[in-house]
Amino acid sequence: MSTEPDFAQYSFGTQVRKSPFSDAALRWGAKGFSVYNHMYIPRDFGDPAQNFWNLVNEAILCDVSVERQVEIKGPDAATFTQFLSCRDLSTCQVGQCKYVLITDQAGGIINDPILLKLAEDHFWLSIADSDVLLWARGLAVHAGMDVEISEPDVSPLQLQGPKSRDILRAAFGDAPCALKYYRFMEFDWDGMPLVISRTGWSSELGYEIFLRDGTQGDKLWEHLMAVGAPMGLKPGHTSSIRRIEAGMLSYHADMTLANNPYELGMDRLVDLDMEADLVSKAALTRIKEEGVSQRLVGLELDGDPFIGSNDTFWPVLNGGERVGAVTSAVYSPRLEKNIALAMNRVDNAALGTALEVDRQSDKRACVVVQMPFFDPKKSLATSS
After folding, report:
1. Are 296 and 343 in contact (CB under 8 A)?
2. What is the DSSP secondary structure assignment for residue 74, as one 8-state letter?
3. Which one of 44, 55, 157, 216 has the fewest CB atoms closer than 10 angstroms to its CB?
4. Residue 334 and residue 145: Cα distance in Å, rounded?
5. What are phi and psi of 108, to 5 degrees?
6. pLDDT tens for residues 97-130?
């Protein structure tokens, strides 16, 4: 009788999809899963603080197949992809990645994917947790452009941490290790088609390995762990501690369809002067002219270390009046501080503003501080 763990103990049924790596993650110690883009994602490999230290001191391997790819192909692919995004893509090169915002006709943020340009007429949007495929297909019906939009058989892993380059070299040779930040290459490993990019959701040195054959998930995972484990690689999950330290935003938590780029301080991702048409141009022009009433800020909170993270949007108070809400909060063992992201009224968003957070009747003094909380120039991720 097999003693291999049975994924059925976590299953909700066929309406939520497993990834090509779900069984491997379970074998390697995953203790809990969440749902993201209608798929299971490992969220628990034990102590989240230890997962954080594994990431920042060595390396972790994460199943992030939930970052589904929206593939846009065809003669009008470049024009249509630009129509979706408010960031100017005219200088994007084949083999380059860009962090972009997908915005709607009201300027609201639908998603914040990484764009990969595979050819002049071929793009992937590696998406966060919302139905970009349906939005893009709906727009395409009425756009009058010659495009094909689909979800290909592509499933990414994240290899992140200071030892990730050495592990990547041991697994695949020198070529992928030469990638510059936010660049990618197509790669064939033992007949297995991959795309390898120097990206990731950690702000550490890291790579994403996009498997283009979902039947090969076990083989790829086991190869990476066999090569990497002697070098310090641990199975893990995306670290909330590290991403909040880095000021990296999580869709549905720190931004939703109700938010626009200017509230999030993402003005650099909006180009209203380009000639290209985009679905949100009129709305974002108006919002820029009128200004915004709230802004995302960083907070440091007093008191004992948090256990876990917030599962409600804690009120931010000024003299008892609600002036904002905490969107993501965590204790950073490296900084030895409670840190948080919050959406505050603009008159309570200035650096140094003293406020209070109502943490479910546990009131904590806090102050607005600069984001990111650690390595603001992203020197770890971008180092050569």
Report:
1. yes
2. S
3. 44
4. 50
5. -75, 150
6. 999 999 999 999 999 999 999 999 999 999 999 9
